[in-house]
């Protein structure tokens, strides 16, 4: 089984993948935010590679990283323009030992890629060959220095395509396989969203999310890098002033948030003396209103409606209007894999039906991949 499954190279999983968009360490954080908006509108993965000397990949950043950067430092909230003028390198802070980007050779085996992920790599950077046997990569070979991402999702999908070889574990429940982690990131709906920033940073590094859980243990929502990726840098004002529950509402309706949410943000910014951030919000609101007005005057009704849509969150995950993806402890391994891949998330929340559907834990792609690695020993 292992021989036939692992005969492929890493490059086989990268066929058709586009070259990753990248920025140098010296680029400004504001330039990164603008690049992320362009990536999100294109429907691609809402993250950008950061490269150092000789285009060596030193990190991967998304809009959630920018927001955490702005919200971690009080000075950044007070002077957002100055903060966004700082180099991207300021965003590359340690992520609790996780979140590593690791380069792998296109000729590496699937097993080597799997071991790299299970040893702490969040994502793998695979150079695109300019020619040779894998010339079809990225639609005909990449330029020197081009590379693509190989993610946990790619590996899970690869094993799902060969799930028949793992029939003895595929139908077993995630509970019996020991995949339900009872320790997970969580906050209460009434807590200040700003207090969740350290948890959001950990969620970025672990490819998970922060569960929003009531006092009696029920899951009411989540804050994830995928949802934040559909916003822009002005969402830092919402994180700085709103409760967790109101932040979820803000993200759900980003681009046209409820009036009471906007009033709460502006009042909070005034109370904290964050005048520069308030000015940024008001400028953005005026700009959005002007864009919407121009669109509504068009004879193309679809163009007008498009202004109200949030940017695509790409491969990071689903649109925020959807509920968190959940399963039960009795759900089979293959069912959870299919469910997560269908929603483009790398985790599934576990609700205990025998305990009034309270949140019991989380199943992550990293743990799912560990099951397959054990089967290949």
UniProtKB/TrEMBL annotation:
List residues of the CBS domain: 319-377
Region named Disordered: 291-321
| SUPFAM superfamilies per UniProt | CBS-domain pair
Q: Which UniProt keywords apply?
A: CBS domain, Repeat
Q: Which Gene3D superfamilies match?
A: CBS-domain
User: Where does this protein have compositionally biased stretches of type Low complexity?
Assistant: 309-318
Q: What is this protein called?
A: CBS domain-containing protein
Origin species: Digitaria exilis
């Amino acid at each position: 089984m292992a021989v036939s499954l692992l005969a492929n190279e890493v490059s086989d999983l990268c066929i058709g993948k586009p070259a990753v968009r990248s920025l140098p360490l010296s680029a400004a954080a504001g330039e990164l935010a603008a690049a992320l908006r362009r990536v999100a509108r294109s429907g691609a993965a809402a993250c950008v590679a950061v490269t150092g000397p000789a285009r060596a990949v030193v990190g991967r950043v998304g809009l959630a990283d920018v927001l955490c950067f702005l919200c971690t430092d009080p000075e950044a909230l007070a002077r957002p323009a100055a903060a966004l003028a700082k180099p991207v390198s300021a965003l590359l802070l340690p992520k609790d030992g996780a979140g590593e980007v690791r380069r792998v050779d296109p000729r590496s085996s699937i097993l080597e890629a799997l071991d790299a992920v299970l040893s702490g790599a969040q994502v793998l950077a695979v150079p695109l060959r300019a020619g040779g046997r894998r010339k079809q990569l990225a639609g005909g070979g990449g330029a020197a220095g081009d590379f693509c991402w190989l993610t946990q999702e790619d590996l899970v999908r690869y094993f799902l395509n060969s799930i028949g070889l793992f029939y003895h574990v595929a139908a077993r429940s995630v509970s019996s396989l020991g995949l339900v982690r009872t320790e997970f990131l969580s906050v209460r709906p009434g807590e200040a969203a700003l207090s969740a920033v350290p948890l959001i940073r950990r969620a970025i590094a672990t490819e998970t999310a922060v569960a929003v859980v009531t006092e009696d243990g029920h899951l009411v929502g989540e804050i994830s890098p995928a949802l934040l990726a559909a916003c822009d840098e002005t969402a830092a004002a919402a994180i700085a002033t709103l409760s967790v529950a109101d932040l979820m509402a803000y993200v759900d309706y980003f681009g046209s948030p409820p009036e009471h949410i906007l009033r709460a943000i502006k009042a909070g910014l005034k109370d904290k003396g964050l005048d520069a951030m308030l000015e940024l919000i008001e400028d953005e609101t005026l700009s959005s209103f002007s864009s919407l007005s121009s669109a509504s005057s068009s004879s193309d009704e679809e163009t007008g409606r498009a202004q109200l849509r949030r940017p695509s969150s790409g491969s990071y995950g689903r649109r925020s209007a959807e509920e968190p993806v959940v399963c039960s402890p009795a759900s089979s391994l293959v069912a959870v894999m299919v469910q997560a891949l269908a929603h483009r998330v790398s985790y599934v929340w576990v609700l205990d039906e025998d305990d009034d559907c309270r949140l019991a834990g989380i199943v992550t792609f990293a743990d799912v991949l560990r099951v397959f690695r054990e089967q290949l020993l």
